[in-house]
Design goal:
This protein has no helices and eleven strands.
């Protein structure tokens, strides 16, 4: 049974930082590309970042570029999202996801519908 469990969310002041973690179990996540998404109330789901299976290829959404960093530790089967210079517009539920498509493992997809497994989400709230 594949599970993705996010942690690290919370309340932070504008300008602060948080580090989200996504621990995978039930499979070797190192074989697959993974991504982080977020959804704020009343807004569409947004692709935040994505990373290839090896970690060599990454993607960032325009709204987080230069502030967020996605990384992975394939020994720990965990993907991270380091978030710096947070602002209130970053407030959302953050989800990690895993793409089972093997041929895409050396790149990534930015489309949520390409991801097969999702975590339960972790709330990030940035106060002004």
């Amino acid at each position: 049974q594949v599970q993705l469990v996010e942690s690290g969310g919370g309340l932070v002041q504008a300008g602060g930082s948080l580090r989200l973690s996504c621990a995978a179990s039930g499979l070797s996540a190192s074989t697959y590309a993974m991504g982080w998404f977020r959804q704020a109330p009343g807004k569409d789901r947004e692709t935040v970042a994505a990373i290839s299976s090896s970690g060599s290829n990454t993607y960032y959404g325009d709204s987080v570029k230069g502030r967020f960093t996605i990384s992975r530790d394939n020994v720990k089967n965990t993907v991270y999202l380091q978030m710096n210079s947070l602002n209130p517009e970053d407030t959302a539920i953050y989800y990690c996801a895993l793409d089972l498509t093997y041929w895409r493992r050396n790149s990534y997809s930015t489309a949520a519908h390409d991801y097969d497994y999702w975590g339960q989400g972790t709330q990030v709230t940035v106060s002004s």
